[in-house]
């Protein structure tokens, strides 16, 4: 499941993935949140936390993740991903060259640092 996180500035879309993530999670939570945020901001920062309770993701959800990322690619100013899931770290690093803004991957032990970085004035 994907849930939105609170306590971040308005230009930061913050979310957590936990349990099993499905395509429906993207349709119901992530895509509407991205569209709403982009209606109010020319550039968006994304904080993506993969919690220790994460158990997996459907293939359809992987496709939606890629599609959501590419659809508004030029409007992402900064992205932070917090995860200890190795295949997610590898996938992010493999597609890093597509990201026009700053992108950092943090281990779960550095969650506080990731949260500070995503809201900081400088990347």
Describe this entry's structure for a reader.
This protein is of the alpha/beta class and 123 residues long. The chain has a single domain (2-119), classed as Rossmann fold (3-Layer(aba) Sandwich), CATH 3.40.50. Helix content is 41%, strand content 32%. It is built from four helices and five strands. The protein has helices at 23-40, 59-71, 86-95, 111-119, and strands at residues 2-4, 12-21, 44-57, 76-82, 102-106. The chain has a five-stranded mixed sheet with strand order 1-2-3-4-5, sandwiched between helices. Strand 4 (76-82), helix 3 and strand 5 (102-106) form a beta-alpha-beta unit. Helix 1 (23-40) runs parallel beside helix 2. The longest helix has 18 residues, at 23-40. The model has no long low-confidence stretch (mean pLDDT 90).
Keywords:
123 residues; alpha/beta; Rossmann fold; five-stranded mixed β-sheet; 4 helices; globular
Architecture blueprint of SSEs:
Blueprint: E1 2-4, E2 12-21, H1 23-40, E3 44-57, H2 59-71, E4 76-82, H3 86-95, E5 102-106, H4 111-119
Parallel strand pairs: 2-3, 3-4, 4-5
Antiparallel strand pairs: 1-2
Helix pairs in contact: 1-2
């Amino acid at each position: 499941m994907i849930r939105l996180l609170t306590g971040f500035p308005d230009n930061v879309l913050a979310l957590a993935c936990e349990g099993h993530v499905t395509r429906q999670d993207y349709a119901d939570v992530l895509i509407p949140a991205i569209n709403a945020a982009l209606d109010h901001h020319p550039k968006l920062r994304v904080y993506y936390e993969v919690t220790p309770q994460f158990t997996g993701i459907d293939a359809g959800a992987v496709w939606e993740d890629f599609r959501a990322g590419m659809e508004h690619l030029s409007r992402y100013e900064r992205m932070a991903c917090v995860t200890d899931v190795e295949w997610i770290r590898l996938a992010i690093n493999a597609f890093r060259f597509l990201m026009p803004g700053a992108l950092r991957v943090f281990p779960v032990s550095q969650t506080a640092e990731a949260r500070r970085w995503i809201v900081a004035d400088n990347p």
